[in-house]
Amino acid sequence: MSLMTDKQTLNDLNIFGKGGTHGIYAIFNRTHTRGGSELLEEMFRNPLSEADAINARSTTIRSFGANGLAFPYEASWFDGAEQYLQNTDERSRLSDQQDNLSRKLNQLIAGDNAYKAIEKGVESLIHILQTTIRFAESIQQQAMAIPYGKELAAIEQLLKEEELQPLLHESAKLKLPFAKVAEYDKVLRFRQRDVMKRLLHLLYQTDVYISVARIAAEKKFSFPLALPREQQTVILEDFYHPSLTTPVANSIVIAPSSNVIFLTGANMAGKSTFMKALGICMYLGQMGFPVPASKMEFSVRDGIFTTINLPDNLSMGASHFYAEVLRIKNVARELSRDKYLFVIFDELFRGTNVKDAHEATIAVTSAIARRKNCMFMVSTHIIEAGEVLKAQCENINFVFLPTLMEGSKPVYTHKLQSGITSDRHGMVIIRNEGILDILARKKTVKNNA
Q1: What mean pLDDT comes out for the span 54-83?
Q2: DSSP letters for 315-358
Q3: CA–CA distance from 180 to each of 85, 114, 159, 444 (Å)?
Q4: What global pTM score does this model have?
Q5: 28, 29, 67, 305: which has the fewest Cβ within 10 Å?
Q6: Does domain 31-219 have CATH number 1.10.1420?
């Protein structure tokens, strides 16, 4: 099964990029082949939800990185092979009768494009097959000790097809005569086409593993350990947002006794960035991909849902507040299914007045705190709500992002601390920007009458 999520969450975490910005997918999209890139996107759209599958993928990628494996293929081979295998029209099948003087003359004068495409496809697949034999032999010993051993065994089984043996021993340096191209074409494009497609898919997986391993090494990402759902645990050390050039790392622990994290902080203190960084780590962890942290252990989730950058739904005539209400309602429906979820609510009810926001924040947070099988992070700038919740709920961990003052200038450390903030610097910022002074100026109006 795949992890449950939705478009809002993908947008909040900027998984695929938006507004001209590169997303998290772009950070990892360094595959060598188009098929690998497409498979990588499929993995991003369908994170895993089982601990064994997550740990198996993570172990494979880690092993590839530790051994410094390179992808020993040329991308052009896969382009040629894919285009070639797409043509399944029987009328394009080569025959011995075509190898005549007329065809040779036509090729000499104008070039036989159809034949050249087939020839290129056959040669590309021969290169791929022969390179795969060498690659499989070179990693056989190390692969047997990791989950990738099953995929390698599948590759080797495909290569044992009797009809493929002549191609494995063909000289890849010599131009093939027409008769051999015609014979190999029958094998590759018609009789063993499904075998070729399965082999390419397995090689695209290998491309993804090797490429992601390289990213992990370059960026010094760590590999997550997936734990059973019931442990209700997240341990994240020194995690940060991977898109920032100079990020500030933080650490956090979520336990069964504190499955709700209540985050406070002044505006501009970094609450949204912190929550996005946490959400990205959880999302990548569910994929079995390396994460921007020094350590990560987490209990797998059935779904991840976030509400960080919620837009107004003007087409429905909905205000921002009503859009918030509908979003929370949708998440509540998911929670009612008794699944193990990870949920982020950033600045609950910012679209309404302070009194309603205060009451609603307390009501919703205390309600979700009763869902002991899920994990939550809730942020707000209404610090009074935190004091009430502290008295009502025992399983809430209160943390904040502080603001320091250097004279009249606020300084944001972005380093998480325990407790509830008392920072209120909105008017300080307004005064520092000179807004009140601008509004107090009088403009002389000349009377031309």
Answers
A1: 96
A2: GGTB-HHHHHHHHHHHHHHHHTTT--EEEEE-STTTTS-HHHHH
A3: 17, 16, 19, 93
A4: 0.91
A5: 67
A6: yes
Q: Which is more confidently placed, 434 or 30?
A: 30
The span from the CA of 124 to the CA of 122, in Å, is: 5
Do 352 and 319 meet the contact criterion of CB atoms below 8 Å apart?
no
**Residue boundaries of the structural domains of the chain:** 31-219, 225-440
> Given the DSSP bridges, would you call strands 295-299 and 225-227 parallel, antiparallel or unpaired?
parallel
Single-letter amino acid, residue 173: K
> Which pLDDT value is given to residue 105?
47
Cβ neighbours for 46, distance < 8 A, ≥ 6 positions apart: 2, 3
Q: What is the largest CA-CA distance in the chain?
A: 102
Q: What is the rounded CA–CA span in Å between residue 397 and residue 414?
A: 18
Identical fold between 31-219 and 225-440: no
Q: How far is CA 340 from the centre of its chain?
A: 20
Determine the CATH number of domain 225-440: 3.40.50.300
Tokens, residue 306:
């976030």
Place of tokens 């031309």: 448
Instruction: Give bridge partners of residue 297 from the DSSP assignment.
Output: 225, 235
Closest CA to 117 of 87, 159, 147: 87
> Which has more pLDDT, 97 or 40?
40
Cα dihedral 108, 113, 119, 120, rounded to 10, equals: 120
